[in-house]
Amino acid sequence: MPQGTYSKSKLFNFENQQLVELLIELLGPFEKATTLLSGESASTLPLVLPTIKKLKQALTHTPILLPAEDDGGAQEETDSSKIVKRVKAAMKTDLTARVQTHRKMYELASILDPRTKNLPFLTPEERELVRERLSLELLTSFPDAIVPQIKKEQGEEPLRTEQDLPTLPTFDVIEQNQQIEIKQEAMEKPVLKKSRKKTDTEDWLEDIMIVGEERPEVALQPAQKIRLEMDRYFAEIAIGLREDPLTWWLEREGLFPCISRLARKYLSVPASSVPSERIFSLAGNIVSRKRASLKPENVDMFIFMKKNYYS
User: Fold this and answer.
1) H or E element in which residue 275 lies
2) Backbone phi, then psi, for 182, in 5-degree steps?
3) 57-87 residue pLDDT tens
4) Backbone φ, ψ for residue 159 (5° rounding)
5) What pLDDT sits at residue 263?
6) How far apart are CA 226 and CA 110, in angstroms?
7) Which residues, including other chains, have CB under 8 Å from residue 96's CB and lie 6 or more apart?
8) Domain extent listing, the chain
9) Closest to 67 (Cα-Cα) out of 77, 59, 55
10) Would you say the C-alpha torsion 222, 226, 229, 231 has a positive or negative sign?
11) Angle between helices 222-235 and 257-267 (to 10 degrees)
């Protein structure tokens, strides 16, 4: 082999350079998706489905290199174009397979997140199926809530357990014409001022509470409680993507007692294993050669303080 032939064969020609540039552009959205789903500051599992849709759109809209037109006006695919097509097809297939494995979990996490609860990345038929699945999940998550009703019909004294459906706040469940009569009577009677201190959430609750008017309590079946709670949850305005859904649920836990329990279950799951892998890297930084005598419980404490302390 002549001198310099090997090194020249390793250099990129023009077509190779175009292929590399196109592949870098193709992988750009995947870098953003990896960074997004590897975050630790907010819940990431509800963002899986919208991220997958965004990636599929990127794969669809990415241009493919074509050679210049020849004298006959025809165009033929180059090796670069064929490679890009195969890469895109393999990526789409892999994304679809990965989503289908845990799709139901992703859907429930998305609908329980106040940022993505409207599911704009799904079709109307898929949204309705997810809502039905959420209703079923709420009923099955509180199986003992239906048992007291059965025992009551059999003449037995039901035993209350921790899994019983939480009591919803007292909401207005009177018919529309009765509501109008109550409000008219309330306007004619003087409303006594409350002695309690005004809270920040008082204005927020005005649309569902009548200040100074005692609300009649109506017994609801478990399915009715869940349906009422779901209706009120979906009536809430979706929050921005930069807001924290866990903080949102913490502030409204009393308003949505059933759904908030389910939200804690799904929103606490990370979308990737990157956060746990970071802990192993952190442990390696703490247990260095000069600190090899640290006790295991002290190492655990240092890791916990590092990951949970916010200055």
Assistant:
1) helix 274-286
2) -65, -45
3) 888 875 554 555 554 544 556 667 788 888 8
4) -100, 130
5) 93
6) 18
7) none
8) 5-68+75-133, 143-191+209-267, 274-308
9) 77
10) negative
11) 70
36 vs 47: CA distance, rounded Å = 8
Q: Which helix (H) or strand (E) holds 257?
A: helix 257-267
| CB-neighbour burial class of residue 112 (10 A; exposed 0-12, middle 13-18, buried 19+) | buried
Beta carbons of 99 and 48 less than 8 angstroms apart: yes
Place of tokens 């019983």: 164
Q: How far apart are CA 233 and CA 227, in angstroms?
A: 10
Six token digits for residue 136: 């079923």
The encoded tokens of residue 8 equal: 């020249």
Question: Over the Cα atoms of the chain, what is R_g?
Answer: 29
Q: Which residues contact 256 (CB under 8 A, 6 or more apart)?
A: 229, 232, 233, 249
Cβ neighbours of residue 182 under 8 Å, at least 6 residues apart? 174, 210, 213
Amino acid code (one letter) for 76? E
- Tens digits of residue pLDDT in 236-276: 999 998 899 999 999 999 999 999 999 999 999 999 888 88
The amino acid occupying position 108 is L
Tokens of 173: 């469940």
The DSSP H or E segment spanning 95 is helix 79-101
How far is the first Cα of the chain from the last one, in angstroms, to the nearest whole number? 64
Residue type, 300: D
